[in-house]
Structure formats: structure tokens, C-alpha cells
Design brief:
Layout: E1 15-20, E2 26-31, E3 35-42, E4 47-55, E5 61-66, E6 74-79, E7 84-89, E8 114-120, E9 127-132, E10 140-145, E11 149-155, E12 164-171, H1 206-221, E13 234-239, E14 247-253, E15 259-265, E16 268-276, E17 293-298, E18 307-313, E19 318-324, E20 347-354, E21 361-366, E22 372-377, E23 381-388, E24 393-404, E25 414-419
Antiparallel strand pairs: 1-2, 2-3, 3-4, 5-6, 6-7, 7-8, 9-10, 10-11, 11-12, 13-14, 14-15, 15-16, 17-18, 18-19, 19-20, 21-22, 22-23, 23-24, 24-25
């Protein structure tokens, strides 16, 4: 492999997320500096040039997600200020109007071509993840926040993007499970604090912030043994990309080290159809063994009879799960999770477990065929994992590290170190 591009000094603070659009020609990045930048690829020389740059939130931006291009150029962003914002690329975007108190009614500067179309204010904690649903389900958006709630929104006015309906609000921690795997195989304990916002963002109403904090503490107090620190909250989400099985998401919350596979249905309440637990038979865990799963990614199916889901956590492990859907005689979806026997249940097994990062894993992502997995960790490296022997065995396929080179000039170039 070779280095194909390098963006230096992308933001003035830590970059929290980077997301390609559908075609891979534009890249959206966000940062602790509260800004979003959109980069355009110059295919002739392989360089990335900033196309737009704007202050998007009143606190650090945690995640960005692109909608499918059939809906237009749309980005959703989540933030530590407890909001989710919908942005649309509009060359004719008007400058923000100034209110009587001197504050702007929109977040983007007048030079930005991205217009703020909607602000979602339901979260009672830091919104850690946001993800658009596969396009065949319509213009839908899922979010998860440190109040442990998974929220699914649907756009009711697609031309204007102004009205979004909260169609599902799910407490991931207390969601009932139909899986035979015990959800409560580990005790919930208070984790170390994370650098999340604990004060009111600039311009926010103190009464609203106080009310949100009280609601969050009240929710935590109703759960025995469950801490009210934000580190115990929701962490990550990923949609199943296969239309055949309906609307299914993988979600992680708390520090129990598990991922819940949640099925949404218009005819009944959401249900946990499977729990991915690396040690379901383990006794009640102590604080040293408890960890959060910080990232999850559902692989494209590409005709396989099973699913692949990758997870990464604060224990430094990257795990690859082989998930088999429920089987039924009619060849249908297998929606009835209450059937007796394994044939009526979703099952999963770990086919890859790697701890090469030796530190927190912050992101896992698949290639377009689900045959190569990349992971990024606090060790400063992006590591690759590749399937072998029919996908039942996974092995390391190399790593990429970006480190500051010795100063041999004034350009401050960086080297890419490849290992295989």
C-alpha cells in the first residue's frame, strides 16, 4: 500500500471524526474546535482541498454522517452541546440573520455554502453518534447519547428538511431482550470521566440545562447500580445495510462490554434480538474488567448468508462477530424472535479478536465488500484486518502510522510508516 493523501493541520484541535460521502470524493471532518470542514478530492494529483469550513456547534462536534445522495448533499452532526444538526449544501445559502440580542440565528458564517436546516434537541446528554439509515428506508437518522437513549428521526418534509419526527426513543439499557444471551452478565459501574461538556453552552438557557441534568440524574437513580457519569452512557450505533431483514441497528451503551442488536418494527415495540457479549458466562465483573464498546460497524452483506459486525472498545480489543439471522421454514425474515430453539433466534460467534492496539480503539470501518476491516486506536495507528479461508479466519493485514518527521525543512511534512 502507498500513501494517497495527507491533510496537514486539518483543524486547530483534535479531530473527532471523518466521513466520506457516497462517492468518496468529499470528506467531512469535525473537531473539538466546534467546526466542520468539507474537503474535495482533486483526482488529478490526489490532494484534498478545503471546500467549506464553518462553526457548527457551541461545543465539540463528536460525529458527522452523510445522507445518501438521492436525498441531496446532506450532513448530520452531533455534539457535546446535546444537539444534532442537519446541514444541506446550498450554493444560494443566505447569510445568517442577526437577532435583537446580536446573536446569529444560524451557525454557519456567511461564506459557507452549507445551510442549517434543522436542530434536534431531544437528547439529555452528549450526543456521541449519529448515522443516517440505508436509503431504502427513507430519510431517517439514528442518534445515541449519554442519557442511554437511541433516537430515530424521520424527515417529514424532504424538500425543506425542516421537520423531523421522533419516531423511536429507546432506552438501550432497559430494552427487553429475546436473546438467550444474558444482557446482565456484568454489573454496571461508574467509569472514568470523559471530556464531555458539563456546563451550559454559550447562549443556552440555564433553566433548560438544569432541567436536563435533573432528568438525567433521575433516570440514572431509577437503575440500581447504574452511575450517572456520562461515561456510562450511549456510545455507538450502526445500521444493518441489508434491506431484507428490515430496520435493524447495533448499539452500544454503558461499560458492560456488550452490543445490542435492536430490531425496529412499525407494528410492535423495538426489541433486542441479540446481545454480543465477549464473555457471557463470566461472573459479575469488577471495575477493572468493565469497559465500554466505543465503536461498532455493520459490514455490507454482499450476498453472504450471515452478517459481520466489528466492534472496538476501551479494552484495546478489535472483535469481529459472525452473526447468523434467525431461520424459518418459509424463508421469510424470521421476525418472530420468540420461537423456541436456535432456529428461531439470531446467533453470533467471535471469528476474530485482536489486541494489537494495546489502547482504546476509537473507530472500526469496513471496505465496500466487507472483506477488509480497518481500525484506529490511541496507539496512533490505523490497522487492517483481512479475511482468509472463507471468512472464518481473520488475520492482520498491515498498519499505517502518521508521525511527525524530523525537521529537514520548513514544510513540516509527515511520514507514513507501513508495516505488513
Amino acid at each position: 500500500m502507498i500513501q494517497t493523501g495527507l491533510i496537514q493541520n486539518a483543524h486547530s484541535d483534535l479531530v473527532t471524526d471523518a466521513s466520506y460521502d457516497f462517492y468518496g470524493l468529499r470528506l467531512a471532518t469535525c473537531s473539538l474546535d466546534q467546526r466542520i470542514k468539507v474537503w474535495q478530492l482533486d483526482e488529478e494529483n490526489g490532494t484534498w482541498k478545503v471546500e467549506d469550513d464553518w462553526k457548527a456547534h457551541d461545543a465539540a462536534v463528536s460525529r458527522v454522517s452523510w445522507a445518501h445522495p438521492e436525498f441531496g448533499s446532506i450532513i448530520a452532526s452531533s455534539s457535546f452541546d446535546r444537539t444534532v444538526k442537519i446541514w444541506e449544501h446550498s450554493p444560494d445559502a443566505q447569510p445568517p440573520t442577526v437577532n435583537g440580542n446580536g446573536s446569529a440565528s444560524q451557525s454557519q458564517p456567511s461564506s459557507s455554502k452549507w445551510a442549517e436546516r434543522a436542530v434536534l434537541l431531544d437528547a439529555r446528554g452528549t450526543v456521541r453518534a449519529v448515522a443516517f439509515a440505508p436509503h431504502h428506508f427513507g430519510l431517517k437518522l439514528a442518534t445515541i447519547s449519554t442519557d442511554n437513549f437511541l433516537r430515530v428521526y424521520e424527515c417529514l418534509e424532504q424538500p425543506s428538511l425542516a421537520t423531523w419526527q421522533l419516531s423511536e426513543e429507546i432506552d438501550v439499557h432497559t430494552l427487553p431482550s429475546t436473546s438467550s444471551t444474558s444482557v446482565h452478565s456484568r454489573a454496571h459501574t461508574v467509569a472514568l470521566a470523559t471530556p464531555t461538556q458539563t456546563i451550559a453552552p454559550e447562549g443556552a438557557s440555564p433553566s433548560l440545562v438544569a432541567q436536563a441534568l435533573l432528568q438525567q440524574q433521575g433516570s440514572a437513580a431509577s437503575r440500581p447500580g447504574f452511575g450517572n457519569r456520562e461515561a456510562d452512557g450511549g456510545w455507538c450505533i450502526s445500521w444493518c445495510r441489508d434491506r431484507y431483514w428490515g430496520e435493524i441497528l447495533a448499539a452500544g451503551c454503558g461499560i458492560s462490554g456488550i452490543i445490542k442488536i435492536i430490531q425496529l418494527s412499525p407494528s410492535r415495540r423495538p426489541t433486542t434480538i441479540l446481545v454480543l457479549d465477549p464473555s457471557p458466562s463470566a461472573p459479575v465483573a469488577d471495575a477493572d474488567k468493565a469497559f465500554a464498546v466505543t465503536c461498532v460497524s455493520w459490514a455490507p452483506s454482499c450476498g453472504r448468508s450471515y452478517h459481520l459486525i466489528a466492534t472496538g472498545g476501551r479494552d484495546g480489543h478489535v472483535r469481529i462477530w459472525k452473526v447468523k439471522p434467525a431461520a424459518d421454514d418459509d424463508g421469510e425474515q424470521g421476525d418472530d424472535a420468540e420461537m423456541s430453539g436456535d432456529e428461531g433466534r439470531w446467533t453470533a460467534s467471535v471469528v476474530g479478536d485482536f489486541d494489537e492496539h494495546q489502547s482504546t480503539v476509537g473507530r472500526v470501518e469496513w471496505n465496500v465488500t466487507g472483506t477488509v476491516l480497518s481500525s484506529a486506536g490511541n496507539d496512533g495507528r490505523v490497522r487492517l484486518w483481512k479475511a482468509a479461508l472463507g471468512g472464518n479466519i481473520w488475520r492482520p493485514a498491515g498498519s499505517v502510522g502518521v508521525e511527525q518527521a524530523e525537521e529537514t525543512g520548513t514544510d513540516g511534512d509527515k511520514d507514513v510508516d507501513m508495516q505488513s
